[in-house]
């Protein structure tokens, strides 16, 4: 199969029009007519991952986060982005990113809600004309307190610890989950009456703001939840593509840099 055939399979799942306006999804590097025999699936196209893709001799790298977000004026070896573009192009590796289009349709939000066990999950904030959107809200019968929820998040997403903003003994019923960075969606969480929000990229001041707004927050880091993209996409491609195309998945243990602290 050529790269464009793979792209059609990916966009059948998560059409590009569902991506948010700021995003940069699709084929970012490479020739859409290149023959694809080996695909590497990762969360990010960081330099180590690009090196792994080169070493593995893959033809295509599929990531969740776009390697290129903004306009660039030069491509050379003097900066990390330039080096990665040169390595990919020099080794004839196509790079395809499916970011907020996958968050909305596919979808990262549904995957996270299902793994956490949200019952009757609904969209947290609609971003498309058909009502689809970012994040999910629902209830979990087994969870009574914020501490219960923190323990469940660690268990379901295979994390040692998380950061908690709020009273661990607080009762929580209506729970929201936003994979990746969710601090920009606090207003939507407040409007939806969320008791606890599971997300990432929360800072000290945002945590205080959330508590004052009546919402407890569990910060599982940006990648802590989103790394579920890797096994899901690997399995999806195996199901959709011929067996002769090899699928390699990035090691999940390498996708969450840094440490977590879980208040007890």
What does this entry look like structurally?
The protein is an alpha/beta fold. It contains ten helices and eleven strands. Helix 2 (47-56) links the parallel strand 2 and strand 3 (60-63). Helix 2 (47-56) packs parallel to helix 3 (80-90). The longest helix has 12 residues, at 229-240.
- Characterize the biggest β-sheet: 6 strands, mixed
Radius of gyration using CA atoms only: 19 Å
Order of helices and strands: HEEHEHEHHEEHEEHEHEHHE
Low-confidence stretches: none
Give the number of helices.
10
Record the strand order, biggest sheet: 5-6-8-9-10-7
Q: Which structural class do you get from the secondary structure elements?
A: alpha/beta
Topology overview:
Blueprint: H1 3-13, E1 26-29, E2 38-42, H2 47-56, E3 60-63, H3 80-90, E4 94-97, H4 100-104, H5 108-116, E5 119-126, E6 133-139, H6 146-156, E7 163-165, E8 175-181, H7 186-191, E9 196-200, H8 204-212, E10 216-219, H9 222-226, H10 229-240, E11 246-249
Parallel strand pairs: 2-3, 2-11, 3-4, 8-9, 9-10
Antiparallel strand pairs: 1-4, 5-6, 6-8, 7-10
Helix pairs in contact: 2-3
Explain briefly what this protein structure is.
The chain has 264 residues and is α/β, with parallel strands linked by helices. The strands form two sheets. A six-stranded mixed β-sheet has the order 5-6-8-9-10-7. Strands 1-4-3-2-11 form a five-stranded mixed β-sheet, with helices on both faces.
């Amino acid at each position: 199969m050529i790269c464009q055939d793979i792209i059609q399979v990916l966009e059948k799942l998560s059409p590009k029009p569902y991506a948010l306006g700021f995003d940069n999804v699709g084929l970012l590097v490479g020739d859409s007519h290149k023959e694809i025999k080996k695909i590497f699936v990762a969360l990010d196209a960081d330099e180590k991952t690009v090196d792994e893709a080169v070493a593995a001799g893959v033809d295509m790298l599929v990531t969740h986060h776009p390697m290129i977000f903004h306009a660039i004026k030069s491509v050379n070896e003097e900066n990390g982005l330039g080096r990665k573009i040169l390595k990919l192009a020099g080794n004839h590796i196509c790079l395809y990113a499916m970011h907020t289009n996958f968050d909305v349709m596919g979808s990262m939000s549904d995957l996270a809600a299902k793994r956490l066990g949200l019952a009757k999950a609904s969209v947290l904030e609609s971003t498309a004309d058909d009502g689809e959107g970012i994040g999910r809200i629902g209830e979990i019968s087994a969870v009574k307190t914020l501490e219960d929820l923190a323990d469940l998040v660690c268990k379901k997403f295979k994390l040692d610890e998380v950061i908690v903003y709020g009273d661990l003994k607080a009762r929580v019923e209506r729970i929201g989950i936003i994979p990746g960075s969710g601090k920009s969606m606090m207003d939507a969480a407040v409007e939806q009456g969320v008791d606890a929000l599971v997300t990432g990229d929360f800072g000290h001041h945002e945590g205080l703001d959330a508590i004052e707004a009546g919402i407890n927050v569990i910060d599982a880091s940006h990648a802590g939840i989103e790394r579920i993209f890797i096994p899901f996409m690997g399995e999806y491609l195996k199901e959709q593509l011929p067996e002769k195309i090899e699928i390699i998945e990035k090691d999940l243990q390498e996708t969450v840099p840094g440490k977590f602290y879980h208040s007890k």
